[in-house]
């Protein structure tokens, strides 16, 4: 298990992780002040959505099947809409969105490279699962930023057209049990790298050893991940 924690805890607040599609059953965890400064939060959130748009757009070019092209175009458009929404928030604050995102480009591009599979189906599964985990996490952090956080949360809650990807994955695994086994294993491998992105989203310099405080966050994120896997018919 990864250890990420904070050096001081003079104040506590409540961070809520929401499982996608669920109205209740969330876990509330008290933290020290972990939330990064606002532009760090906005820059990472905006660049992540841009990365998903780029990956899905490449998927469109990489398939000859018209129905799949259309499905991926809808999912890519949803990611681009989220990116544009967060960029607008940044611009309205008087900042240059490119400069706000730039410090996170290298690390997030590396994350994207790690989650691109040898086959398109692996990459699509990675987009769906990692976007789900990270949207949940950034929704939790958004509660730290008042009205601006509320705007970003509303953007992140927009329909990501993930159902388009789920349909492709389900058709794939129903056609061949070897695909089911392969994608189940791939889905499990994504968790560690995604949790590291969550770690990097937090305020630098606040990490101390405190497993009991952070453990519920991991538990909830991985629980939501397992539910997404199970809903697609993949063993988690």
Automatic annotation (TrEMBL):
The record's Gene3D superfamilies line, in alphabetical order, gives: 1.20.1260.10
Which InterPro entries is this protein grouped with? Ferritin-like (IPR012347), Ferritin_actino (IPR059125)
Domain spans labelled Ferritin-like: 41-195
Q: What domain of life?
A: Bacteria
This protein is called Ferritin-like domain-containing protein
Q: What is the lineage of its organism?
A: Bacteria, Bacillati, Actinomycetota, Actinomycetes, Micrococcales
């Amino acid at each position: 298990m990864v250890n990420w924690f904070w050096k001081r805890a003079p104040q506590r607040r409540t961070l809520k992780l929401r499982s996608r599609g669920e109205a209740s059953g969330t876990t509330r965890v008290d933290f020290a002040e972990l939330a990064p400064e606002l532009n760090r939060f906005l820059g990472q959130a905006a660049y992540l959505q841009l990365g998903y748009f780029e990956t899905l757009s490449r998927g469109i070019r990489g398939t000859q099947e018209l129905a799949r092209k259309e499905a991926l175009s809808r999912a890519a458009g949803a990611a681009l809409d989220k990116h544009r929404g967060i960029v607008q928030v940044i611009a309205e604050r008087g900042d240059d969105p490119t400069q706000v995102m730039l410090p996170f480009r290298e690390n997030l591009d590396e994350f994207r490279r790690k989650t691109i599979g040898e086959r398109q189906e692996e990459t699509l599964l990675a987009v769906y699962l990692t976007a789900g985990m990270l949207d949940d996490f950034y929704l939790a952090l958004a509660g730290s930023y008042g009205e601006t956080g509320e705007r970003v949360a509303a953007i992140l809650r927009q329909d990501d057209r993930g159902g388009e990807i789920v349909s492709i994955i389900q058709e794939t695994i129903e056609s061949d049990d070897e695909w089911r086994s392969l994608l189940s294993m791939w889905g499990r491998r994504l968790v560690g790298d995604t949790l590291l992105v969550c770690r990097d989203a937090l305020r630098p310099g606040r990490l101390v050893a405190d497993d009991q405080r952070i453990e519920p966050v991991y538990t909830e994120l991985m629980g939501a991940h397992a539910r997404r896997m199970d809903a697609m018919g993949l063993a988690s």
